[in-house]
Amino acid sequence: MRKYLSIAVILLGAIALTACNEKGGKGHGGGYHKGDVHWGYTGAGSPEHWGDLDPKYIACKTGKNQSPINMTGMVEADLPPLEVAYQDNGGKEIVNNGHAIQVNYAPGSTLKIDGKTFELLQFHFHNPSENTIEGKFFPIEGHFVHKAEDGSLAVIALMFEEGAENQELQKAWAEMPKEAGAKGQLTTAVSARALLPNDLDYYRFTGSLTTPPCSEGVRWLVIKAYSHASKEQIQAFQGVIKDNNRPVLPVNARVILK
Ligand SMILES: [Zn+2]
After folding, report:
1. Is 142 helix (H, G, I), strand (E, B) or coil?
2. Buried residues in 32-62 as b, exposed as e (16+ CB within 10 A)
């Protein structure tokens, strides 16, 4: 019995190491660890412990502008339209980094905001949602991660409700890697623009990465319109990675613009 237990522990350790060694593209979702404790969503590596796992993760514990949040009390603002110029079919590589399912995007797709150009690096998915709107969770939240030349980040977030099958999402879901650390090339590449709704009206606030190192100064742009995914698509995601959502953090002095 003891022997089997040790083997199980070694196997689990190997899986965790694979996940942590897997950088899984740029932006968030990469792997870090201290000693034997890897960050994750349960047990010793769960979100309430992230700030203690590594000095580099201190913002997870002490930051005052952390993500996700419950979005409420939005304030009217004259937000400029999002200027996205995404290449079609740029989502060719799919990764299971052990923390999320992520599609890495080909170079050359941009978001312009605040007079700054950000490049789309990847998009990935959480279930259930990380941000909540007026306390409401969604079965899936997509994060489109963009980085500017100076290193600053902008994330477009998109909520998915349960509904009809999402055909664009299905291009990725059809070849979702089941094991942490696995990656593959999609037979049919995904278009980031096709995943987003036509209407890109958004809420805006300042936040952080929702995974270690929880770096702040991230521009969060949450699309007001919801997308949809079928029950089967939601279950397929949950069957591979479940509950990869950091709990909401205090809004503190932040204002959520609408
Ligand atoms: Zn995310």
Report:
1. strand
2. ebeeeebbbbeeebebebbbebbeebebbee
Spacing, Cα 3 to ligand 1 middle (Å): 38
- Tell me which residue of 50, 35, 102 sits closest to 213, measured CA to CA: 50
In one-letter notation, the amino acid at residue 231 is K
User: Could you give the domains of the chain?
Assistant: 2-240 (3.10.200.10)
Rounded to the nearest angstrom, the distance between the alpha carbon of 209 and the centre of ligand 1 is: 7
Catalytic annotation, pick one of 99, 124, 126, 143: 99
Question: Is 99 in the active site?
Answer: yes
pLDDT at residue 176 greater than cutoff 80: yes
Distance 148 CA to ligand 1 centre (A): 17
For the segment 190-233, what is each residue's pLDDT rounded down to a tens digit?
A: 999 999 999 999 999 999 999 999 999 999 999 999 999 999 99
Q: What is the mean pLDDT of the chain?
A: 90
